[in-house]
Specification:
CATH superfamily of the largest domain: Alanine racemase
Largest sheet: 8 strands, mixed
Structural class: alpha/beta
Keywords: Isomerase, Pyridoxal phosphate
Mean pLDDT: 94
InterPro entries: Ala_racemase, Ala_racemase_N, PLP-binding_barrel
Cofactor: pyridoxal 5'-phosphate
Strand content: 15-25%
Pfam family, one: Ala_racemase_N
Low-confidence stretches: none
Number of helices: 10
Distance between the termini: 17 Å
Helix content: 25-40%
Radius of gyration: 24 Å
Protein name: Alanine/ornithine racemase family PLP-dependent enzyme
Length: 357
């Protein structure tokens, strides 16, 4: 059975690096846990780090967090749906919002539950996912700031999540100006300017973050240490907090090209053979006990650089081990580093065992 392993020491070292970085800059931050898909084993590991604030996009995950530690401050990091208003108020201390109608329902529900519910007003900054348009922000704020049982914790934005728009210094300055505009217009204080996610970490390391941006939600940098501007690993962070291990269930020398009439495979792809292809070539292939049901091969990278991923079907993956200096046998494990989406597929699968090193 294939399994994913979390390396506790590397996770702790990444957390310490990030926590120190944020504290030195007087920035509040929370860990985005949606990658963990509510896995209790891994949520406990995050809580054990001393995290006080956790963000997720699934109410069931927030419920688990509150059950593990009711003192953790929880945030629901997408606009709430009408059907989930009651449970969002119950399990999320804060939610991200873009619709007046939704905030009115949150206000009514918070009153019923005798709670104060915090909101962050998300602003559209060009990535074209969720967000109030900048020219409508003052009118939006005016309609919600006096609603009962609602506390406006701040304004925020999401960048790089849909269209790939990067959180440049100019973008974050613009976000900071919205804070100043609201405060001047309504004579209020906006506690948080939530400047984004892991993609903005390189700006902080270069001290290019506007001082008003004082809150971040971090997931990918914690688990993968990735600089999303360059694609490289941020110096001081580990890129392999998670690893996948899959077992070899067959090893055979086979032709490089399929034999017979070709049609679509299980994934809807058709293999093409060029006229100049040498049909006599072969390679040593290993079949692994994992497939498309649990992962997508493009998000995996073998630890052994001499192993090449060939393709996968629903429950098995084929790799070429012809150039490997290590001699593999049936029953051996082959390990893979993971990209964010690769880990997300695996952690969402009930068929992949989750363990801690």
């Amino acid at each position: 059975m294939a399994f994913i392993k979390l390396y506790r020491r590397k996770l702790k070292e990444n957390y310490t690096f990030l926590n120190t970085m944020f504290k030195e800059r007087n920035i509040e931050w929370g860990v985005v846990t949606k990658l963990l898909c509510g896995n209790t084993i891994y949520l406990k590991e995050i809580i054990s780090l001393g995290v006080t604030e956790m963000h997720d996009s699934r109410i069931s995950n927030l419920k688990k967090i509150k059950k593990l530690n009711p003192n953790i401050k929880t945030s629901y990091i997408k606009p709430p749906s009408k059907r989930n208003i009651s449970t969002i108020v119950q399990y999320a201390d804060v939610s991200f919002n873009t619709e007046i109608y939704t905030i009115q329902m949150l206000s009514e529900e918070a009153k019923r539950q005798n709670k104060k519910h915090g909101i962050i007003i998300m602003i559209e900054m060009g990535d074209l996912r969720e967000g109030v348009l900048g020219e409508e922000l003052l009118h939006f704020y005016e309609q919600v700031f006096s609603l009962p049982n609602i506390e406006i914790r701040g304004i925020g934005t999401n960048l790089n999540c849909l269209s790939g728009v990067m959180p440049t210094q100019d973008k974050l300055i613009q976000l900071s100006l919205y804070k100043q505009l609201i405060e001047a217009k309504f004579n209020v204080k906006i506690p948080w300017v939530s400047g984004g996610t892991s993609v903005a970490v390189p700006l902080m390391l270069k001290n290019a973050r506007p001082m008003a941006v004082n809150h971040f939600r971090i997931g990918e940098a914690l688990f993968f240490g990735k600089d999303l501007f360059t694609g490289e690993t941020i110096e001081g962070l580990h890129n392999d907090v998670f690893k996948l291990y899959a077992e070899v269930i067959e090893i055979t020398e086979k032709p490089d090209n399929p034999i017979g009439e070709l049609g679509e495979n299980v994934a809807g792809n058709t293999y093409e053979i060029n006229d100049d292809t040498d049909l006599s070539t072969t390679s040593l292939r290993a079949i692994l006990d994992i497939g498309l049901l649990d992962m997508q091969p493009q998000y995996l990278e073998t630890d052994n650089p001499n192993i090449t991923i060939v393709d996968a079907s629903s429950d098995m993956m084929v790799v070429d081990i012809s150039n490997s200096e290590k001699i593999y046998k049936v029953g051996d494990l082959i390990s893979f580093k993971l990209q964010y989406m690769g880990a997300l597929y695996l952690l969402n699968s009930d068929y992949i065992e989750k363990i801690v090193e």
